[in-house]
Write a structure and sequence with these properties.
mainly alpha, 393 residues, 3 domains
């Protein structure tokens, strides 16, 4: 028996569709119901399908309402929002993947597309905002994220950070996790800091991840090794033992058990160093397993600082010679890494000499150079300069 569609809808099934549509829009039409979606892209995909069904329904059975109740604008706004958010995320991935390799990204399709539409982006955002303020907000936050990475200015970074933190509760846990990582990418890319302190900003971002329960991986509740390392080393540059200890107390046991012992030793080094127990700090460094690439560089910095604090210039000179071989034989070091390590040892060598034979002109010259090269990580150097100045002036 064949059934005509128009006959079905004469049996009040049009009302059933309409009521069901209203129910779904009411329940799922806002990402405030975050448990219903894994990410904002899932949200836009679902809504676009829902609007598409409404569009087909009106086109087939209620064409008179097409002009007054136009789901095409709703659907297309979702399509555009979803596409742009995916592209903004892809731009972040592009920067992270390239890292410090100095690869030209101008010819990448994502870069080309976003460059092409940038002149009309504000007009596009205003158009979507007329249709849905919440959808426009998601899109605008992601757009601020893209701008912070493209412009690389402190102003654009702060605009992204502030609007994200102000609206963090509208995001799913998955998106909170990813957006925090985008913040880290953005702050790494930012140049010429005035208001912000780089490592304090890293700590703030990771503290926010911890407060929002998105710093550990879903499924195994492990904290990634590089995230733990980034936090404690950032806190160490600020000589902030309270931050190091509180973070370690909370997350050391969430590390992979194979790596937990090593990080526990590293934390012990940091707290001993900040407490002024430099001989014990150096002993803790000697106990570290240096399989992790980042740790190999960190230990080089910290050894030099310990030797200065214990006034062991001969050992420092030996370590300086070893550094030359380390730089030559490790291909993972970028030119930037090599420059930072070399300058670090050069400046500490000059500190040794100034402490033995003070010269005010050389003192001021060295201080200016250090502030220029290590302005975001110079707290320890600042303390050493203050000590030398106090002793001699």
């Amino acid at each position: 028996m064949s059934i005509c569609l128009t006959d079905i809808f004469t049996e009040n099934l049009k009302n059933i569709f309409s009521n069901k549509y209203k129910s779904l829009i009411g329940k799922y039409g806002s990402l405030m119901n975050r448990s219903d979606y894994q990410s904002v892209n899932d949200y836009f995909w679902f809504l676009s399908k829902l609007y598409d069904r409404k569009l087909n329904y009106l086109h087939t059975f209620d064409a008179k309402r097409m002009s007054s109740d136009d789901p095409m604008i709703d659907r297309d706004s979702c399509h555009i929002s979803n596409l742009l958010i995916l592209l903004f995320g892809a731009y972040n991935d592009l920067l992270v993947t390239n890292g410090e390799k100095n690869i030209d990204i101008t010819g990448n399709p994502v870069t080309l597309f976003l460059d092409a539409i940038s002149p009309v982006m504000e007009t596009l955002l205003e158009s979507i905002e007329k249709n849905s303020e919440i959808n426009s907000l998601y899109l605008r936050i992601h757009y601020k994220m893209y701008l912070s990475m493209k412009e690389k200015t402190e102003k654009s970074y702060l605009e992204f950070r502030n609007v994200f933190f102000e609206n963090i509760d509208i995001f799913t846990d998955h998106d909170k996790h990813d957006m925090h990582y985008c913040l880290i990418t953005a702050i790494v890319m930012t140049k010429n800091y005035k208001e912000i302190k780089y490592y304090r900003e890293i700590i703030k971002i990771l503290d926010s991840m911890a407060d929002n329960n998105v710093i550990t991986e879903k499924g195994n509740d492990r904290i990634p090794y590089h995230v733990f390392y980034l936090y404690i080393t950032s806190a160490f540059t600020q000589l902030d033992s309270d931050k190091i200890e509180s973070f370690s107390d909370r997350f050391l046991t969430h590390l992979d058990p194979v790596k937990e012992k090593n990080m526990r030793t590293y934390v012990k080094f940091m707290t001993e160093f900040i407490s002024g127990n430099f001989t014990e700090a150096l002993r803790q460094l000697s106990m570290l397993d240096l399989n992790y690439t980042g740790l190999k560089m960190g230990v080089r910095y910290h050894k030099a600082m310990c030797m200065y604090e214990t006034d062991d210039y001969e050992m420092f000179l030996n370590e300086s010679d070893n550094l030359k071989h380390f730089i030559k034989n490790n291909d993972f070091l970028t030119d930037k890494h090599k420059s930072l390590l070399t300058n670090h040892y050069y400046f500490i060598d000059k500190l040794f000499l100034l402490r033995r034979n003070f010269d005010n002109f050389e003192f001021l010259k060295l201080r200016n150079k250090v502030m220029e090269k290590f302005k975001s990580t110079s707290l320890w150097f600042e303390k050493k300069f203050d000590e030398i100045e106090k002793e001699n002036l």
